[in-house]
């Protein structure tokens, strides 16, 4: 089979996967007696219906970009960093902690913001490093270690919000006391989106892309992921590389958490990670770990998220329906990839 | 069961792996398929066993045309294939492996199967423990397990792909005896090999393939020279022996004691000189692999020292050995040698010592891969993933990846899976390194290879290491006796 034919065939399978997931979700919508086309139109309008909504899509895009980029590092090294949610959370906690330390001091605002963001990255890296330490020295599979640390991070977060950092007089699910607006990462006027965040997200993606596709380190990471024993035999210190992958991913997750605090919520809230970590895992699987697809697919997922907000308002449906759509999309796309490999031989 | 191939054609991209093959294999015979690496033997057998589909042509079993769509299909027709690398489940018990392919029944009839297993293996004189775990078995034992399993599942024709690589001489004898029993029972045995010697003692008839074409058939007794000619198109002789040993000691083992269950090797004292080649002979699992791994930090010695160029490396890890110029090429190519999923060019990038900046100079390593492909006669391209190369070419690639600056090279079965011509070529390359001062320690199951290329030989027998033997004064017969544990008193008193 010639190359163009193979490519169009692949496209056929990908579109087939997309179609099947839409059919699947339509089926669910019909079961709950909602009109599928109406629901899809709502999601579409909800995502791009007006400039505010479009801006909100980009607000959700940034953490997805960062988290997915980070996850590419761990996936390349053959690691399942399920602990990414906890890493985002701890990043947010560190950032909030540093901000609180500097509130009311004479340190310039932008310096505080920068230090706070760096602290967030450090926090994420520490939390990810812990997963690596548990794996390397404790023999704990990274999936279990990560899952455990996710719970601890959540508990820590809630503990701080309702305890040490609770708002004076009241402790509530709405989070800690918001920072004065000088300490906010500047956003576009009248919108929630910050160009700074978007810039950081894009830079992050570029860094990961070049690291994985152009550097010796990236190639060694790939070797460790594809064949650890052989990689070691060829002179690559394997556990050190896995540790580095965790730390890099943690830096990205921590940055995502830090930006949620400094640019979006301006305080620590209980669900600060907002499930972006798990969504990043889904995106990474959906794009088959190809850095080049991170930006568009993350944008698509962010759009689904924002668009989905309209579902409960208008149709009285739960907004988690977009989650079902995202999940089934990943599932059917992976089925399509599997089928494609079966019919076309190897990729 | 009579097996017949009719006009079988198979292409892989531009390669015509099987060109119009016509072959008739009579029921109850041991039929050899002979050919060098990449001659198309494995392809033909994979077609028969349902792994691959032919582009055209048909297969007849007892004169009935059949379409074999999958390995499961093949076993339904009574065709079982024993692969070069055993396809078993190492972390499972032997008996579980045995049962796993069984059809029907929710709960396996465990006790009955154990009994059947014992009876079956008794017929062939195998002594496998059904309760042991597969990863504790040697390659030869795993092979025995696989043969029993295929027979138990009802195989009437057995295909064996290079079954004698990686097994000891004793296991080979057992295997051959078992195959003879099977052929007497009327089973058809197809024996794929590139080893003349094996084919000559075992087979009643052989077919020779060269570059995808059937070049001829011959019945026993065989004319070796003619077989070689049909395989290679010319007669091959082993080259001259060269000895590049210098005075300088590069690696010293000092009262070394190593232990890896169930073996314990005690008090090894040895000095490896620059340019020297040492062959480690012995049946598989006699301790040579343990010693080799201890020489490169993959096994920590219990006591004693490993000294490399005057530096005590005894408790250092593998990476530090590598830094000081000792390298190790293990037998399992795709598990420990090469990284599946990475291209040849990427392998050279990782293994190379040059151009180690932050960014990969892709053009440079593509060119390097191209020149190494030429130099080592690898059939492949820089952008091909290593797992898509044939076994022999993977071996060539693994050898070509060894750094230039190495002072000690440890090799496990360096020419396993290579045909004679390629093996000679590879040894030419290795000896060239010796001439430049590198020393080689190598394990081989092929005694002729050990005698031909070693300067000195260490013989292993169940954890005992002999004093070094001068290779030029040792005969094949003598060496064969020694690895079997005979004649140690006469030689080393």
Features:
heterodimer, A: 347 residues, mainly alpha, 75% helix, globular, B: 493 residues, alpha/beta, seven-stranded mixed sheet, six-stranded mixed sheet, 18 helices, 25% strand
Quaternary organisation of the protein chains: heterodimer
Overall geometry of chain A comes to globular
Q: What is the rounded Rg of chain A?
A: 21 Å
Number of H/I helices of chain A: 14
How much of the sequence of chain B is in beta strands?
Answer: 25-35%
Q: In angstroms, what separates the terminal alpha carbons of chain A?
A: 13 Å
Indicate the overall shape of chain B: globular
Would you write up a description of this structure?
The complex is a heterodimer of chains A (347) and B (493). Chain A has helices at 3-31, 36-48, 51-76, 84-102, 109-138, 142-162, 195-214, 216-226, 228-233, 238-265, 276-286, 294-308, 310-315, 321-344. Chain A has 347 residues and is mostly helical. In chain A, helix 1 (3-31) runs antiparallel to helix 14 (321-344). Chain A starts with a helix and ends with a helix. Chain B contains 18 helices and 21 strands. In chain B, a hairpin with a 2-residue loop joins strand 14 (303-308) and strand 15 (311-312). In chain B, helix 3 (94-100) packs parallel to helix 5 (139-152). The mean pLDDT of chain B is 85. Classes of the chains: A mainly alpha (347), B alpha/beta (493). Chain A binds chain B through residues 210, 214-217, 219-220, 222-223, 226-227, 229-237, 346, and chain B through 318-319, 322, 328-330, 334-342, 346-347, 349-351, 356-360, 388, 401.
């Amino acid at each position: 089979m010639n190359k163009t034919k193979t490519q169009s065939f692949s496209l056929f399978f990908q579109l087939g996967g997309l179609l099947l997931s839409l059919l699947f979700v339509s089926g669910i919508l019909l079961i709950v007696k909602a009109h599928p086309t109406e629901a899809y139109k709502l999601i579409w309008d909800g995502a791009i219906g007006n400039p505010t909504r479009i801006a909100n899509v980009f607000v959700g895009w940034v953490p997805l970009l960062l988290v997915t980029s980070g996850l590419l590092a761990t996936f390349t090294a053959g690691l399942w960093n399920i602990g990414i949610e906890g890493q985002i959370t701890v990043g947010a906690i560190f950032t909030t902690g540093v901000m609180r330390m500097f509130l009311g001091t004479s340190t310039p605002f932008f310096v505080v913001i920068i230090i706070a963001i760096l602290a967030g990255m450090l926090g994420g890296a520490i939390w990810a490093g812990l997963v690596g330490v548990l794996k390397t020295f404790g023999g704990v599979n990274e999936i279990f270690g990560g899952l455990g640390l996710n719970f601890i991070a959540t508990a820590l977060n809630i503990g701080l919000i309702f305890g040490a950092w609770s708002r004076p007089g009241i402790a509530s699910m709405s989070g800690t006391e918001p920072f004065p607006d000088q300490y906010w990462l500047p956003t576009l006027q009248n919108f929630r989106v910050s160009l700074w965040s978007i810039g950081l997200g894009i830079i992050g993606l570029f860094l990961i892309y070049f690291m994985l596709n152009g550097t010796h380190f990236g190639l060694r990471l790939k070797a460790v992921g594809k064949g650890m024993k052989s990689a070691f035999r060829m002179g690559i210190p394997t556990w050190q590389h896995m540790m580095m992958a965790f730390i890099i991913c943690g830096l990205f997750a921590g940055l995502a958490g830090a930006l949620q605090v400094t640019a979006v919520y301006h305080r620590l809230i209980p669900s600060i990670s907002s499930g972006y970590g798990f969504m990043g895992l889904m995106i990474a699987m959906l794009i088959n770990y190809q850095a080049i697809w991170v930006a568009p697919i993350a944008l698509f997922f962010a759009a689904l998220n924002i668009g989905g907000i309209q579902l409960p308002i208008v149709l009285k449906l739960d907004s988690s329906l977009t989650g079902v759509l995202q999940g089934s999309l990943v599932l059917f796309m992976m089925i399509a990839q599997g089928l494609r490999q079966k019919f076309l031989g190897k990729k | 069961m009579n097996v017949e191939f009719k006009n079988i054609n198979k292409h892989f991209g531009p390669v015509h792996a099987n060109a119009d093959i016509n072959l008739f294999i009579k029921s109850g015979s041991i039929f050899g398929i002979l050919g060098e690496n990449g001659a198309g033997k494995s392809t033909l057998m994979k077609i028969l066993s349902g792994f691959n589909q032919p582009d055209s042509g048909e297969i007849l079993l007892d004169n009935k045309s059949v379409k074999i769509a999958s390995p499961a299909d093949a076993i339904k027709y009574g065709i079982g294939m024993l692969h070069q690398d055993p396809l078993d489940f190492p972390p499972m018990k032997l008996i579980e492996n045995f049962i796993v392919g069984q059809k029907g029944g929710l709960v396996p009839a465990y006790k009955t199967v154990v009994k059947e297993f014992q009876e079956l293996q008794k017929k062939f004189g195998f002594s496998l423990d059904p309760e042991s775990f597969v990863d504790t078995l040697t390659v030869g034992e795993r092979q025995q397990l696989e043969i029993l399993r295929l027979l138990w599942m009802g195989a009437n024709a057995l295909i064996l792909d290079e079954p004698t690589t990686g097994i000891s001489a004793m296991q080979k004898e057992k295997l051959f005896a078992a195959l003879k029993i099977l052929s007497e029972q009327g089973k058809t045995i197809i024996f794929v090999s590139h080893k003349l010697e094996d084919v000559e003692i075992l087979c009643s008839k052989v077919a020779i393939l060269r570059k995808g074409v059937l070049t001829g058939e011959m019945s026993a007794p065989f004319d070796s020279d003619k077989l070689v000619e049909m395989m290679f198109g010319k007669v091959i002789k082993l080259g001259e022996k060269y000895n590049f040993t210098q005075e300088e000691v590069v690696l010293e083992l000092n009262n070394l004691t190593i232990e890896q269950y169930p073996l314990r090797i005690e008090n090894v004292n040895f000095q490896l000189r620059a340019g020297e080649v040492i062959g480690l002979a012995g049946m598989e699992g006699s301790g040579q692999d343990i010693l080799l791994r201890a020489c490169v930090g993959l096994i920590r010695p219990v006591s004693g020292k490993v000294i490399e160029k005057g530096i005590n490396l005894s408790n250092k890890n593998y990476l530090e050995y590598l830094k000081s110029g000792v390298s190790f090429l293990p037998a399992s190519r795709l598990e420990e040698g090469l990284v599946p999923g990475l291209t040849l060019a990427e392998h050279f990038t990782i293994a190379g010592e040059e151009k180690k900046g932050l960014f990969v100079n892709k053009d440079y390593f593509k060119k390097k891969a191209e020149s190494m492909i030429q130099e080592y006669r690898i059939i492949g391209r820089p952008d091909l993933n290593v797992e898509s190369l044939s076994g022999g070419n993977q071996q060539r690639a693994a050898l070509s990846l060894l750094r230039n600056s190495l002072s000690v090279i440890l090799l496990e079965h360096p020419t396993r899976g290579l045909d004679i011509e390629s093996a000679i070529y590879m040894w030419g390359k290795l000896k060239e390194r010796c001439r430049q001062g590198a020393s080689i320690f190598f394990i081989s199951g092929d005694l002729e290879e050990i005698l031909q290329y070693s300067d000195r030989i260490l013989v292993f027998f169940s954890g005992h290491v002999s004093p070094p033997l001068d290779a030029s004064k040792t005969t094949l017969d003598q060496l064969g006796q020694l690895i079997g544990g005979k004649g140690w008193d006469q030689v080393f008193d």
